[in-house]
Amino acid sequence: MKLIELSDVFKKNKFLGQLQTTGGFAIKSLDKVTLSYIQVENVYDRLGYLSENNIVSVSECIKGEITPDNVVYKMLNKPNFTDVKLYGCDTDTGFVINSTNKSVMAKEILGGSDNKTVTSVLNFDGIKIASIHLSGDGPKNQTIHDFLDENLKNVKHENVDVVCGDTNITDAKSLNIINGRTKDIIQYFNIFFGGPCLVLTSNVHVGKHRRGFLIRNQQLKKSMPESANDTEADGTIIAIKLKYPLDKIDDTILHRLTLLNHSLSQSVENALEFKVPPSRCLDKEGNPIEKIWLDHSVLFINMSILCNLIGKAYKSGYPRNLIVINMGSIVNAGFKSWNTKYLPYQREINIADKDIYEIICKYNSKTIFPRYDDIFGSSMLSNVDKSLISTYGKGVDNITIDEPSKEMIEEIDIIISKLMLLLTQSAGNRKNSKKNRLIKRNSRRRLSIIKNKKYYIN
């Protein structure tokens, strides 16, 4: 059997399926306070604070109809966020505003091939903003112009002032760049708006990689060696339709905008590492402090400056900023394995993951395995050192192992049982002795081989 076949086994198990705490992405800091910042409920708390007197364009925020029963609605409608309103969002992208302003409307626009891309258009007192989230594959072999045109063709007729969000246009995902990634985007929006435009991007490079074996990362094909440190700027943008040509805009304003959005010089930030508590995510001017939100750049523009650029009057009581973020699909916690309740035990999960891998290696001594730190998947070959590929083949997911022996099964089961006891008892089950006894009994059940010779946890 191939190692990749174990992935389905692990996903189906109710306990093991919850250990991939952040979608398989590695976390640099295992400090408990820093880890607490990316607990799902705390990320939504942060979104609530971020929206205070701001318009937040947000992707991957909500799946499903916005009702009082929706998990995100519940998280954002706590006593300290009494005026939070959600517009769009039910099909991925939209707006979050903490404001009592009544002159706000939103609509969704279908686009892209087979109408799979959905854009939410917000009309805030006559200022029309499109929030976009384009295909995760990016342009691939398409030109950037054709990719954007295909996805935004149905938005052209909306006469929007701003297009913002995650385009997924990165250098790695764009195989047909003509004049440079940013220049190609600007040239498209000059045509889209029918005149001059300003495109804000971030030059912050985000380091994010899936690491390890199957309980740590169930997408084994996408695992990367610990030595891999390649990073790149993401595709988050704010494109603005200008009232006047770019050369008529005050250079001081342009410099301030690029400086605030980290566009002047390249830097690298760790993904999944907020630096301040949720309640302190804004400075005194209402600007976001973080450069990175989970695994994407944060962009923003002051509303008074935005109004000046698009030629509309800024009114008293308007939000301070338009802010653009991506929520990284954490709304799917429990479905895409963002089960962050086990984050405080990420170190122990990593150790168990390595132990299980090394047990498999030990009982398959005739097979050549990469070191645990060198694990790489077949989907990531272009990012892996060629010496690793020549030594270990085309990805650890393709490695074939012997049928599991009784001894190997028992050793793996001991590791899993210990981990189950640690995590379940730490989750507060000590007070319930009956429930705790059940957990102990279940944790000691042996990893078994069923008739089709794939193994599972009873």
Describe the secondary structure blueprint for this structure.
Elements: H1 5-12, H2 32-37, H3 40-50, E1 54-59, H4 71-76, E2 84-88, E3 94-98, E4 104-111, E5 117-124, E6 127-133, H5 144-152, E7 162-166, H6 181-193, E8 197-200, E9 204-207, E10 232-233, E11 236-241, H7 251-260, E12 267-270, E13 292-293, E14 296-297, E15 299-302, H8 303-310, E16 321-326, H9 346-362, H10 386-392, H11 406-426, H12 433-443, E17 447-449, E18 455-457
Parallel strand pairs: 1-16, 6-7, 9-12
Antiparallel strand pairs: 1-3, 2-3, 4-5, 5-6, 7-11, 8-11, 9-10, 13-14, 15-16, 17-18
Helix pairs in contact: 5-6, 9-11, 11-12
What is CATH's topology name of the largest domain? Deoxyribonuclease I, Chain A
Low-confidence stretches: 443-458
The averaged pLDDT comes out at: 84
What is the overall silhouette?
globular
Strand content: 15-25%
Classification by helices and strands: alpha+beta
Describe the biggest sheet? 6 strands, mixed
List the total number of helices. 12
> How far do the termini sit from each other?
20 Å
Helix content: 25-40%
CATH architecture of the largest domain: 4-Layer Sandwich
How many structural units, i.e. domains?
Answer: 2
For the secondary structure, the number of strands is 18
Strand order of the largest sheet: 4-5-6-7-11-8
| CATH level-1 class of the largest domain | Alpha Beta
- Radius of gyration, taken over Cα atoms and rounded to an integer in Å: 24 Å
What can you tell me about this protein's structure?
With 458 residues, the protein is an alpha+beta fold. The protein has two domains: 31-332, Deoxyribonuclease I, Chain A (4-Layer Sandwich); 339-457, no CATH class. It contains twelve helices and 18 strands. The protein has helices at 5-12, 32-37, 40-50, 71-76, 144-152, 181-193, 251-260, 303-310, 346-362, 386-392, 406-426, 433-443; strands spanning 54-59, 84-88, 94-98, 104-111, 117-124, 127-133, 162-166, 197-200, 204-207, 232-233, 236-241, 267-270, 292-293, 296-297, 299-302, 321-326, 447-449, 455-457. The protein has a six-stranded mixed beta sheet, sandwiched between helices. The protein has a five-stranded mixed beta sheet with strand order 2-3-1-16-15. Strands 10-9-12 form a three-stranded mixed beta sheet, with no helix packed on it. β6, α5 and β7 (162-166) form a beta-alpha-beta unit. α5 (144-152) packs across α6 (181-193), α9 (346-362) packs antiparallel against α11 (406-426) and α11 packs antiparallel against α12. The longest helix has 21 residues, at 406-426. The chain starts with a helix and ends with a strand. Mean pLDDT is 84; it is low at 443-458.
